[in-house]
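Help: read this over?
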Amino acid sequence: MEFGSRRISTTMPSKLRSSRLLLISLLLLLVYSTILLRRPTTPPNLVSPPPCDLFSGRWVFSPETPKPLYDETCPFHRNAWNCLRNKRENMEVINSWRWVPDGCGLSRIDPTRFLRLMRNKNIGFVGDSLNENFVVSLLCILRGADPSAVKWKKKKAWRGAYFPKFNVTVAYHRAVLLAKYQSQPRPSDQDGVKGTYRVDVDVPADEWINVTSFYHVLIFNSGHWWGYDKFPKETPLVFYRKGEPIHPPLDILRGFEVVLQHMVSYIQRQVPAKTLKFWRLQSPRHFYGGDWNQNGSCLLDKPLDKDQEQWSEQRSKKD
């Protein structure tokens, strides 16, 4: 390199060789680390377990099952249905059954953890006594985490409780058909009919139509009232849509289907999208010696087997 009249020697070739070696080393290190990151951390033939289906399983008799989380003193009990206080036989046996899902575990509910997760939120149940019984049990369980819980019957709730320690409300709204229905006078042109019940298939019951925005979680159910045991031919259901009778008239099971279609449509349109929504199905009958209104009784102390599950014959018969 020339600088003025002097020639200055330089070491650039050796520095260049060093830089190239450093660059190649870095590239090799990068490639090697990339290969390591891409290598599977588990054997390639290991298959991920399927998701847990809590609804597929079986009842298991387990005498070592811990005692119930509440007793007969729970203030949210329904007195007539307080099996503990009314000394129903074999309660220890009944409480020894537990549900075991197929292929996964199901831990016992932790009321404190549950209420912490639901802090500042409200849970609403809408439907018939199937939901009501569930609510009563849930309220009594949660009370173990907040003994200061008080009864709550605002917003047309049939029963419920407020847990001040966590600012959580859990309530049940009684709407056995989900749709609005009301009794009507006996029609003069129908012999043998004592009166009718008008059902507006497209109008939610007053008990829940204006409260859905209050709840962060809603659980709906209906089913057991949709039978001729509840509404016999002497007092039938008459279905209306947009304020007018539906023609031709619907039988009770077809009416149930139409009501569900309209209620689901209403929920999708009117209930806030952020609200978590569930639907509970119907449970099988378990009466012996007759149905609930025919001197039947529930003497079982174990779950029904598959071949024992029964649905009231009156539900599909008019006579």
